[in-house]
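Action item from last week, closing it out:
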Amino acid sequence: MKRMKLLSVLVAMVFIAASLAACGSPAQTGSPTQSSNQTQSPGSDGKQSTTAPNAVDIEFWTFQDLHVEFYEKMAEKWNQEHPDRPIHLVTTVYPFDDMHNKLLIALQSGVGAPDLVDIEIGKYANFLKGDIQLVPLNDIVEPELDNIVKARVEIYSKDGTYYGICFHVGAAVMYYNTELCEQAGIDWKNIKTWDDFYKAGQAFKAAMPDKYWVSVESGDIWHMWPMLTSQGGDMLKADGTPDINSPQMIKTLEFNRKMIDEGIAVIAPGNYHHAEEFYALMNSGAIASISMPMWYMDRFTDHMPDLAHKMAIAPLPVWEAGQPRSAGMGGTGTSITKQCKNIELVKEFLAFAKLSREGNIEIWNTLGFDPIRTEVWSLPEMTNSVNKFTEYYVNSPFEVLNSIKNEIVAIHNSEALPATLDAMKNSVLTRAYTEKNVDIPAMLQEEQSNIQY
């Protein structure tokens, strides 16, 4: 009886949300966007015709506007190549938490889920609990495993079943402001270890006392997670349990705190590298470097225009020679829900969009991401392409990517990851970087014991 009552409540919540979406503002309820894959028709008014009457509607949810542009382009390509099976994307962009919460309710209740959906990696484990309501994708993924970075589908799998496909490798790299480095007399190309990085920071601070060598985040984990993985550490142990009080974590946080205390590093304004306050400070030329994944390239092009032709991309420093110089960070797994009305058609479209050579080239051209299909990394249309990314950076992203392609460490994922990341973002990093006289090992032991999942 309790189960039936809970189900009734969930169904009611979905219908209430649907009613609100019909009358609320886009900012509150998401912004429905009709895709642009329409056919041209020489009508008397000279306007585009409506979508082909036999096109199959595919309802798609995402939390990222940029993803919509990519999928619309791929839907248009699909319709050109498959005129006998046209599709019509009906897309809704929701705020991040709203979308994941709404999706979880819809899947638990069995009512109101989309056909196709983007699920962020930090939330993904929530959808692999109990009776999984996502469609297995083994029949489209397994034939491509030799052509892709396998880890970027394994992070969306459980017990050998693949449920999602990532947009990118998310290789962690360093971004250097070459103009500031030159003015301070620092050759960023010679930085190989974190000790080199620290010494360069000391020299930079001596040369430019009013600026900072590097920025760190007190509200997000991208800057420091690869510093764990290069040592063999991670947020989780191999068995999927939290591991935030490890020797590797202690070493990483104490190193960053030392740079903060010495004025070499600054905590990002707004607490993370996606805050408008941070964009403004970085764009002003006040910070010489940051560590972020390659998917951050478009944040520079779109939010920090004054740094064009100044920023270089480089492999991460390591603690000791021979350690891996990158890790696969972040990700969005695109999945099909079991409420999808045309599962086989949507599967074929998803494989076309995210596993094919054509789709992976478009991922680079539209999104600026490092695509998971490795053969495209060395194609002339990638390495010699001219787009906003190649115009912005002083060196080739793919030269860097190819130099580290065998050193990109995969992270562990499990049902414990969302709670572990929440602890890091909401408490651990703030305490480690700002708490006076903090005993980092003791603090981490306390925070580890408080994680519940």
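Closing note: The two ends are 26 Å apart (CA to CA).
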